[in-house]
Predict the 3D structure of the following.
Amino acid sequence: MRVMIADDAVLFREGVARVLAEAGFDVVAQVGDAASLLHRVREDPPDAVVVDIRMPPTHTTEGLDAARDLQERHPSVGVLVLSAHVEPHYALQLIESGARGTGYLLKERVADLDELTDAVRRVAAGGLVIDPSVVAQLVGRQRTRSPLDELTDRERDVLKVMAEGRSNQAICQRLYLSQKTVEAYVRSVFTKLGLHQGADDNRRVLAVLTYLRG
């Protein structure tokens, strides 16, 4: 799998590249700013990019802006945005467009090889990745009356794991449930949230957005 990395911190960037290379990824480019990343992707689109949310020249949202550009111009390229801080509103902005293959992960997760490589593979395959810390902060907010109130505790558990971008199989493993049981819970969640029509992938994203917005 071909991956590009964009981060202005050279040591961090090289560290991520080494970790991914050792895990079998082909790191085809390392750059220090968003403009260089977009240029390299235009020349030779990879399977996925890993991009810091803050880069030159302003160190604000260059990486997030690049992610949006890639979602629009290169929808087949998975985008994993890394952030040093829990910033839930940025995570929501990434997924609200409905684009496939996007993720938001805290930089501290890079120390976990399995977590990082799994996230890159999932966005490259068109999946959704949201850092568990972001999910926890969003769902910990005060909530007004919402369709989520109709869910049972177990359905909420299933939806919480789904909100991290996990598959039904991963939900089975996390919650120690059978495949059929998880499928039944997921169908029930869709029904209670009024998501009766459309492909399951789309309904999963809509269910996650409902959950995160509260």
